[in-house]
Give the backbone structure.
Amino acid sequence: MSDIREKYVADGFLHLREVFSEAELEFARQAVSHLPEWIRQHSGNANVQRLQPLQRCPAVADPAWIKAFYGNARLSRVVDEIFEDVIVPTPNMSRDFQVTGLLIGPREHWWSTGLHRDYRDLMENIDVETWLSHTDDLRMFNQINIPLHPDPSLWVIPGSHDRADTKDEATVVRARDRYRECQDRSMDARKTRAYRSELIDAMQACGGVNVQAVPGDLILYRSNILHCGIYEPAAVRMTLHDGIYSRQWHDYVLETLGHGTAQPG
């Protein structure tokens, strides 16, 4: 097993530096720079967190740039090293399932997704036993973030993808609604600040790690890991969000959601 696969399997996430060049990043920035304001206006929500999928967004004139951007040789080597004998054929980062997202920052209020595992905590009536049966399957639950600007939004609890929640973690997961509600412009600013401090203290107490991502980085993480996003209104945020896909994962998404589109996250 390669060093990076061993770390990914053990921790449930990887933070790799200098995967993308400045020229590649600028190419992507120019392609998406108009989209944050477009989605805020289109949705009527100044604190919206993402636009997804870019491939079907009318404000993206030519999504072919995504395939070109993902042609990065360093990205391909990382994907091959981790998945080449796990996902057959080796995943093609041209986005066959076309679910590329752009993660952005709020304009008005701090808020958070709260601590969660994708699918298990984001969907009602999910078959948790089936979800759990895929825990150790490296073909499943693989997401990537590529920051185009500095992005410290992501928090993860390393190793939590491969075990049940602790009592303290479960308490923080159950409190998700109070942190998500901070998106509401009508909430009192003192209350939102208090909730922010409460969440950060809880994440640190649970062993959470704040992923301080900068342009050029690649963040790869199992989406069944305990993680959360903490979004600050002062930050300029444009982070590409995607996944490493297998036929098995596509079939699971199709069965669970009823269609083969973006995974919650």
Summary: The domain at 3-257 is CATH 2.60.120.620 (Jelly Rolls). The chain has a mean pLDDT of 92.
